[in-house]
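To fix ideas, we close by showing one paired sequence and structure record:
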Amino acid sequence: MIRILLAEDMHMVRGALVALLALEGDLKIVAEVERGDRIVSTALDCTPDVAVIDVDLPGLDGLSAAAQLAEQLPSCRTLILTSLGRPGTLRKALAAQVSGFLLKDAPADRLADAVRQVAAGRRVIDPQLALAAFDNGENPLTPREAEVLRMAADGAEAAEIAGRLFLSVGTVRNYLTTVVTKLNARNRVDAIRVARESGWL
C-alpha cells in the first residue's frame, strides 16, 4: 500500500483527487492539507511514501515545501501538480529535488501511475513540459541584467535602480533595452512576463 499526503488548497479539486486515488486498491490517502506551510509537519506525523503537492499553495508555495520535505523527510518522495505548464517552474521543481512533475489536466490514470512510479524511486516528468523546458533554452540574461529586471519587476524606476546599484540612469536604461531585445519582448512589462514564465527571474 502506497501512503499519500495530498496538498491542494481548492476544496473541489482536492475532493476530486481524493476520490480518484481512492479508486486504486494500492493507494491510500493518509493526510490532506490545504496550506503549504502545513506539509512538512503533517508529513513528519504520518510519514507518507509520496506527497502529491499543488505548486501554488497559500502559506508556502509547493516547490519550497517540497524542498523542505526532501531535507526533513527524505523517505517521502514528491509529485508536483500544476495547471500552468511553465518551463521555468519545471526547472525550479527539478532544483527542489522533486520526483515528479505533472500537469493537472493529465488523464486520471496518469496520476495514479505517476504516484506508483515516484514511490518506486523513478522520476516522472510530463513529456510536454520537458519538451517545452528543452526548447526554452538557457537564460540569455547576464546576472546584472537579471538584477536590473528583477528590481524593475518590483516596481523600481530607472533612477531608483541606478541609485541602489551605483550606476548611471543611462546605464540602467541601456540594460533594460538590452533585456527587452534579448527576450524578444515588446516592452519592459512583456520582458518581465517572459523572464518569469521562463524561470529566469
